Amino acid sequence: MIVENAHGLFLQRYDGLGERSWRRDDCYKFVFSPYGQSCYQTESGDLVIDKEQFVLFNPTMKHKQWKAEEEKFLVEIRPEFLMETARELGYPSESPEFAALPYRQEPVHQWVSFVRSFLKSEGGDSSSLFVENSMVQLAILLLKYGLGSHRHDVVLTQSVDPLNRVMDALKEGYRENWTLGDIAEVARMDKYQLSHLFKRESGVSPYSWLQMYRLFRSQQDLLHTKRSVLTIATEHGFSSIAVYNQLFRRIYHQTPTQFRKRHAFT
To answer: In this predicted structure, what is the pLDDT of residue 151?
Structure first.
């Protein structure tokens, strides 16, 4: 089933879940995994989207899906529409560049659950008003909770108190050298139980979340100052510039220097 409007399209299907050829779409592509793992190939490596996680592909990013369990659900969003929404919300006017990183956000999950159910019940005969409103809602959610060049923080909505406590502590001391044991002490939980809970609620491990937070905090210096990449990396908690570069490549498919040239205001 494909439902289109002026701002993009919804796709929901249960057959033909793989792709034989590489793609470079001229739109933002939101991919959600409802039931199990969805796997994509990219030029920088494989992306595995676990159940109830999503990932965002930027326009022209080369990719190919080779696995989806039971259902393929995605939304294509035209860049000009996302940019217009970003301006209305007060974000920078240039095209947002999202991190190619699978993760989970409860508000996004709730939106997907409602839209999937509606599309399935209507059999593709969705009203233009529903499609229009749904596109607007998704664009706002992605800008608010999506990780990318327009953000300087990691926003993960949680309802579990130990995780709120942990995230507050990690934000406060993100430059410090944390161990899993240190994080577990803050949560007052066994470190293996904490790891399982953190992964279930956010889609990433505690250490991955901390590294993401460090990276997105560092973006402000990268984009708005002329400080060296080495200085920025070390002052934001990274053990070396090599680790910083490696994480940047994994998330943005480019180096910090390339990212700076593409998005810097100074």
So the answer is: 76
Q: What's the angle, vertex CA 69, arms to CA 66 and CA 73, rounded to 5?
A: 85
Average pLDDT across the chain, whole number: 86
Taking Cα atoms as reference points, which of 262, 247, 258, 178 lies closest to residue 216?
247
In contact, 80 and 26? CB cutoff 8 Å: no
Amino acid 244: pLDDT: 95
Least confident of 24-33, 149-158, 174-183: 149-158
What is the DSSP code string of 17-62? Answer: -S-SS-B--SSEEEEE-SSS-EEEEETTEEEEE-TT-EEEEPTT--
Edge-to-edge strands, sheet with 8-13: 2-5, 8-13, 72-77, 28-32, 54-57
Dihedral angle of Cα 61, 132, 13, 24, to the nearest 10 degrees: -10
Order the strands of the 38-42 sheet from edge to edge.
Answer: 45-49, 38-42, 63-68
Give the tens place of pLDDT for each residue, 58-87: 998 989 888 888 888 999 999 999 999 998
CA distance 112 to 38: 16
